[in-house]
Amino acid sequence: MRRLPLTLARWSIYALVLAVFVGPFWGLAMTAFSGPTVRPGTLLAWPREATLEHFRFAFTQAHVWRYLLNSCIVVAFGTLLQVMASALAAYALARKRFAGSALVSLAILSTMMLPEEVIAIPLYIVLGKLPPFNVSLLDSYLGMILPVVGWAFSIFVLTEFMRAIPVELEEAARIDGASELQIFFGIILPLVRPALATVTVFGFIMIWDQYLLPLIVTNREQLYTLPVVLSTLRSDETIRPNVFIAITLLAMLPSIVMYLSLQKAFNRGLMTGAVKG
Amino acid sequence: MRRFVPWLFLAPALSAFAWFKFVPMLKGLELSFYKVNFAREHEWVGLANFMRAAGDGALHAAALNTTLYVVVTVLASALIGFLLALVLEGPARHLAFIRTAMFLPAVTSAAILAEVWRILFFPTGDGVVNAMLGLAGVGAQGFLADPRQALGTLMLLHIWKAVPYDTVIFVAGLATIDRELYDAAAVDGAGRLAVLRYVTFPSMLPTIAIVLMLGLIRGFRVFAEVYATTGGGPAGATEMIMTHIYKIGFDQFDYGYASAVSFLLFILTVALTVLYLVWQRRLAR
Question: Are B44 and B30 in contact (CB under 8 A)?
């Protein structure tokens, strides 16, 4: 009987936590699926006259499919290239002994002190005239994709996992005459599949959430990604609050789905990220 | 031939780093000493850009805002995260569910959360938060539209996004504490608060240090949360170092000065990171 007040207190904290951190997402979803147009700033706690009309409007009238497509192109190619480049680099760092490997690790580590914000201005200038070709990557998908390919976090996570693979496996394959690439694709990659899932989910969320990079790379609205276009659509008077909320919901959905469907892989990375930055 | 194998594997990642990290870095350092002209050659100005930064009142105000913002948000999220971790720690399914669900703000893009915040804190009685305040008999607040409340409202946004992250890190830290310490404390007849004070807190110090330092390092370059919400306004009330740099660069096209200020921010980031690594090493010993 003495424990009852304590239990009650605990469950009220649970309720409060859910209300504060999940409540707004719930409200967005309920409003996006409700028929009657709400006043700006209003969220509904429960759907009224459930409808898909606002999503239909978003796609047909507000051309959201275009920004969705931009985001998808950038995130698909960005994640793929990032994971590939990281896995290749991690293989060299984890499985090879060579002069200069400590220096390479240090160089990669140092990029963690070079967040995109700090180099945004010169990056814009470099992208405008990429040496040594002197081509411009501004106003192009490549300009939004290539700068996210190198990511120290995923290299370090993969290096750590590749180090743990017993060297005998590799030796045996080498005696059988397997080439470097065969060892990399046939032995190493399949064995670090959990780590690949981790860096994929982190890479995906990191690239989907990019804001400053697409903002500086393009001034053409046709190339805007979803996070960047939101503020433009907000001031568009033909877009009703419910439609805007539906678009906001659409913009956050991919990261959330990735996170929820790859829970285990995500938590593995969170701990590494907390230590490594 | 075999000597080149590692370098072939490193080539894609290293060229990406070279092109989009190191070259911009050096370019930024170079531009810091120039006045960038468009039709004519750039003009060498020596340390003039850095001198200008020393006397730039708007930059100082932005640096002050940023410092206040970072210190308050990092401390508040760590404190709330720590307390929540104590409540939400454990293998029970309902706790795991709550920890997963509350993480939603942490995985959502800051620019998107900015729009959510603009809806929740809408400055009329229709806004969700204003409607709740209305129930308590408080009149509609301006929040992001009010120069006196905008910075605080943005801090709340940052805390909202950071608390779930800190909580999960602290929950993981709590799970690594040696159970025997708790048993020993129980044998000694220590109460709940004494256990927290003499067992939990000291064991958690390394984790607390990590959370605070990472928050600090990441906080000083805050951009999306602020730019997408208030753009630095109203009346400069929420101007941050990064939003200021962005405006110098992309509104005034003064790339030389913007690079110089970016470089100062970079020095700050490096100093904090080095401090963190030294601290981490000392704690590990």
Answer: no
* Yes or no, beta carbons of A21 and B228 under 8 Å apart: no
Q: How much is the pLDDT for B73?
A: 97
Residue intervals of chain A classified under CATH 1.10.3720.10 are 65-276
Contact B203, B28 (CB under 8 A): no
User: B108: which residues sit within 8 A by CB, 6+ positions away?
Assistant: A209, A252, A255, A256, B161
Q: What ipTM, to 2 d.p.?
A: 0.90
The pairs formed by B172-179 with CB atoms below 8 angstroms and a separation of 24 or more are B172/A270, B172/A271, B172/A274, B172/B207, B173/B85, B173/B204, B173/B206, B173/B207, B174/B85, B174/B86, B174/B89, B174/B200, B174/B204, B175/B89, B177/B203, B177/B204, B178/B203
Is A51 buried (19+), middle (13-18) or exposed (0-12) by CB count in 10 A?
middle
Task: Say if the Cβ atoms of A228 and B27 lie within 8 Å.
Answer: no
Average pLDDT of chain A is 90
Residue A22 has its nearest CB partner, among B104, B130, B265, at B104
CB of A19 within 8 Å of any CB in chain B?
Answer: no
- From the candidate CATH numbers 1.10.3720.10, 3.40.50.300, 2.60.40.10, 3.60.15.10, the one assigned to the domain spanning A65-276: 1.10.3720.10
Q: What is the pTM of this model?
A: 0.91
What are the domain boundaries of chain B? 58-284
- The pLDDT tens digits for B25-61 are 999 999 999 998 877 888 898 898 999 999 999 999 9
Q: Least CA distance to B215: which residue of chain A?
A: A277
**Is the pLDDT confidence value at A2 over 70?**
no
The fold of the B58-284 domain, in CATH, is MetI-like fold (1.10.3720)
